[in-house]
Design goal:
alpha+beta, Rossmann fold, GMP Synthetase, Chain A, domain 3, five-stranded mixed sheet, AMP-bd_C, antibiotic biosynthesis, phosphopantetheine binding, AMP-binding_CS, phosphopantetheine
Amino acid sequence: LRERGVGPERVVALGLGRSVALVVAILAVQRAGGAYLPLDLDHPADRLAYLVEDAGATLLVAEPGTLPELRIDRISPEISCFNAEFQAISPLDAAYVIYTSGSTGRPKGVVVSHAGIADLTRSLVNTFGLDATSRVPQIGAPTFDISVAELCMAFGSGGTLIIPPDGPLAGPDLGRVLRERRVTFSLLTSGVLASVPPGDYPDLRGLASGADVCPPELVSAWKGRRFWNAYGPTETTVAASLSDPLHPGGGLPPIGRPLLGNRLYVLDARLRPVPVGVPGELYAAGPGVARGYLGRPGHTAERFVADPYGPAGERMYRTGDLVYRRPDGQLHFLGRADDQMKVRGFRIEPAEVEAVLAGHGSVARAAVALRDGRLVAYLVPRSESPSVGDVLAHAVAALPAPMVPSEYVVLDTLPITPRGKVDRAALPAPAAATESSREPVTDRESVLCAIFAELLGVPAVGAEDDFFRLGGDSIVAIRLVSRARADALRLTPREVFVARTPAALAAVARDTAPAVADSPTGRFPLTPIMHWWREHGGPLASFTQSLVLPVPEGLDDARIVSALRTLATRHPALRMRLLRHPDAAWELEVPPPDEPPQILYATANTEPGTLPAPPPLDPEHGRMLAATRFAPGRLLLTAHHWAVDGVSWRILAPELTTLLTPDSKAPDGEAPDGVLPDGEAPNGVGPVERTSFARWARLLAAEAVRPGRVAAELPVWERIAADEEARLIPGHDRPLRGAPRTTLTRTLPPGGTEQVITHLPAAFRCGPDEVLLTALAAAVARWRGHGTGVLVEVEGHGREPLPEEVDDDVDVAGTVGWFTAQYPVRLDAGGSPADALKRVKEQLRAIPSGGLGHGLLRYLNPDTAPRLAALPAPDLRFNYLGRFEGELAGMPDAPMAYAVELDVIAQTGQDGTRLVASWSYAAGAITGERIEALAGLWFDELATLAGHAGEGGATSSDFPLVDLTQGQIEALEADLDGDW
């Protein structure tokens, strides 16, 4: 090792499983003065490569052939001894680096010093009474710092280290190791220890439980032996405290007192000590505190802060754990701050609820989790399945009402992570409830409940049911506003986000007369998104979107064509045409209603499982819609993208389905083809558009030059675009016009998808797009390796309300057209996952007018357009298209305008809803390997966010009429019992 340059502050990666070779390698690295980095061979290769690169490892020690993906220097076992001059090792030198997800979910290397190990060894050996006769097993994975404690206990006492075969050890297999290898002492996680059948272990004199909450029944199960409870995050060198020896029959075990030479403080938010018995955050100080996070001074400064109560210049580590000090001086663990749950505004520590549940005679172990705003209990029975009624009565007698679980799930065992903790993310969802909340009591509530049920596809909705918990998103919110308008109720999409339930929306809705349809014909200007397309170029004829729809078998072609003509008549964008003038100006025109729509219709024979090619369309001749009938009962509907967007498909698909149903009034006989009398529609088909696409385009042109819009928004867009370092690839300014497009598609299974697009938005009072963008910003920051600011071009639906002084009667929720708005936003997803989501939510909601104004000033205002055009544009684009129940068969052949483009769809099928992510990237700007890494990091960040749904809550944008800070909101949530 020394011959290879290993010495102080040099990291050596160890790719070895549990073995004698691993122990020898650890001791050799430390003897050489270096720091070892353990690698888990079961982890994905790309993650291992990331750890090795991030740690700056000098060497890799591994068995031949086990890690072929890693290409750094190797050590041959034939190297002879090298008598280089020994370099003295300082107590403050790095001894090892262990990676932890940390509060942000990004793997960070915790650097632990030799001083920390020496302090830990003295404390454990003295407290546990270990000596040369002690036999300690190596059970912990090398990447889990309990393995460090095992080495310290065995070698620090002069005892024996027992090395079982490699692989996970728990249950009866671990019991056999304890018995047959005559183990005298072992430190195990409570989850692993609970899996071992108690019995005759004649040599086992002592046990310690660590890394997770120790239930009191675990102490009773191992009576007759000395038993300790240990506590400590990785940043405190394995353990920060140990309890006094525990005895059966006690309550929830304390985490004890600080280890020898260390200090533990219980402080409030202002770093003031709290009285005995009062909860506070735990801070650790002393030689056991790690040096910090490798190569991350910013994160280190956030968690390792100055110690105001210790010697000058010393630091303390902010654990994020909530504790209180008992009168006897021992600390009692309440739970990690970011594990904290809230039900109806009541803060709940899961450990307290779990201890009560496990105190019932029929329950061996218990865990709780937050599911859709409900506290769910998971019970492992002692023998026979416990009576849920009895356990509920037991909980009611011991806990305040908000802390009593509302649902109970009986499991054979609790899922355990590789580190031996209860894996809360793997706890199964309870059976879906079939009952809704209270029945509506007013006409408004009844109307809104019916609209909720219709749009969300559920059989019944109660007055207090939450829009987002039922699967709503921003796109469905637009449709809800339109449907309410049809029933003479006026709402805005923002009110849907804030009020969320039929009862609350009924209270804020205004009565209004149904809007009168405008005249949709004549010439009108291009919208901003069309100017963007023209600027970047591309084949116009193939710029289409397609959707596969079911059609009744036996339906004749004439009926389908007639229905398509009716559809085009009802939605004029489907028959508009492009006008190119000699002066290079472009504009659009909708012909008079007596001019028949240009519909392309064909039939095709295709191989099973394949789709016909969508036909090219011709906007200059008004051919904007086509349909191909193929396979039994399937229709490929293709529209030019200038005429449709994601919202448009949600309007067209149900209308066409209704027009094609056998009991629908056939539009035959209407003159001309498919034209309906004013305001009339076939049975089951909604009213005609209230604000036409043509009128909308004219209103945008006027709004773009309104002085109020320019003064309010131009500085905003200039400031956002100025942050060059926040770009995906800083300094990359290579033109992308004509660059080949390559697409990588990744899919999230239904379980994870529902967490991301339903549960998280409900918990954080946000939309799915805000969840997806939070994860994207965090992933890009990790992928890029510097900074937390990320510049993204976001695509929104663009159907934002215009100022009332412009027009107070605009309703485009039911209008078909290309409304998309694109705008840049700078996102910062630093901090804990929950804080990051709340921060990004506020950053997005601070964007004026949902981003609509950027396109207005960039393309429609002759004074501001040159200024914005001169600014560097983002090189990363994001677009969430929402939920689709049909089969979205084709995306448009669009020009490559960004280095990376991410399009996300929530695709609903027979087995549930899956999140489908399409990563497109420009050749020459980025490699496929880098895109695969970014896509993987994005899914990792989504999973991290999903694990923090219990930390949801409101933010300041949820209360637009009052000026509240985030701290004030959280204080109110803690004080109020759900009265929001």
